[in-house]
Amino acid sequence: MMGTIHVNTDEMRLLGRRFIECNEYIRSQLIPELQRLSIGMENDWIGVSRVHYDGLFQHWIQSALSLENWGEEIGQHVSQTAQQFDNADRSL
Hints:
Blueprint: H1 9-40, H2 48-91
Helix pairs in contact: 1-2
């Protein structure tokens, strides 16, 4: 016999949606906004410090995209798990 799981599936779905919403913000707003601001300074900021910034920024973008991918996977997993719990409850 399996143990009983007591979890609020509505809260799980909310958590899953928030991960997905945050991912959308990272992808569609945050990264493009920071890219626009950086490009706007290209002609005014030159030299070693700019090259260093550009390298750091590229690493940051890659990390942000990785975070977005992980967040998407987490959001989908939590939402699917909530649905599975609901289905299991209905089958009892």
